[in-house]
């Protein structure tokens, strides 16, 4: 890559920003966040982690942030940060989709998966899996956000030879993005007892949806299921910081013995 780093978009508790900061620090590259925030709260654990990894912040108002897909705004950002690669929010670009498509998520210890599941927010992960897999393997993208445009965004990122056997499930998103029901948190607690680390915003919400389908008898006996855990565990610190989960839950879900 002829660029010297990455400039990208995200909110104050963005998993995407945390991941970009970490990989850029690891590769000795510069990282800049166009941050949807009025101020960079120094006590915010996600922003503190990003800054620890060398990320710089440019603050955007909510009105400015809404322009992130505006061609004129994008051109201006590219001009200002000409030495950096501009990556869209959530990493959902053709390049990001290609990266996901290089992963083999179909193989399981019991053999090739019949159904592959993933959480879906910005759509890039789902599109990459759909591009990689082939019919009769089914892909279920489980929406974690109430976004009527999500299906169209996934479709825009698909290659002509993509797997046609896919579906977007929106019935498990609960109260919406970055929100969760008590039952989802309890599901995460239950899975933690089996050493499966989840958070209730992305993977926990989506995997709970898979378990609900299993309980409803949606899959034939012997059906092989594969779930792609998209990470985001750093977000647990942000939930604790905002008092959305207790110290006990934070310790349990994060696998930490200290609060």
The CATH architecture of the largest domain comes to 3-Layer(aba) Sandwich
Helix content: 25-40%
> In what order do the strands lie side by side in the largest sheet?
3-2-1-4
Query: Beta-strand percentage?
Result: 15-25%
Uncertain spans: none
User: Which CATH top level class of the largest domain fits?
Assistant: Alpha Beta
* Structure class: alpha/beta
How large is the radius of gyration? 19 Å
Q: If you consult CATH, what is the topology of the largest domain? A: Rossmann fold
**Strand elements, count:** 10
Please outline the major beta sheet. 4 strands, parallel
Distance between the termini: 41 Å
- How many domains, as an integer? 2
Name the shape in a single word: globular
Number of helices: 11
The overall pLDDT, averaged over residues, is: 95
In sequence order, what are the helices and strands, one letter per element?
Answer: EHEHEHHEHEEEHEHEHHEHH
Pick out its properties.
4-stranded parallel beta sheet; Rossmann fold; 10 strands; alpha/beta; 259 residues; 38% helix
Write up this protein.
The chain is α/β, with parallel strands linked by helices. It folds into two domains: 5-91, 3-Layer(aba) Sandwich (Rossmann fold), CATH 3.40.50.1100; 95-236, Rossmann fold (3-Layer(aba) Sandwich), CATH 3.40.50. The protein is 38% helix and 17% strand. The protein has helices spanning 15-27, 45-52, 62-65, 71-80, 94-101, 124-132, 150-156, 182-192, 203-215, 235-241, 247-254, and strands at residues 5-11, 30-36, 56-60, 85-87, 107-108, 111-112, 115-120, 138-143, 166-169, 225-227. Strands 3-2-1-4 form a four-stranded parallel sheet. α6 links the parallel β7 (115-120) and β8 (138-143). α10 runs antiparallel to α11 (247-254). The longest helix has 13 residues, at 15-27. The chain is globular. The mean pLDDT is 95. Its EC number is 3.5.99.7. It is an enzyme of class 3 (hydrolase).
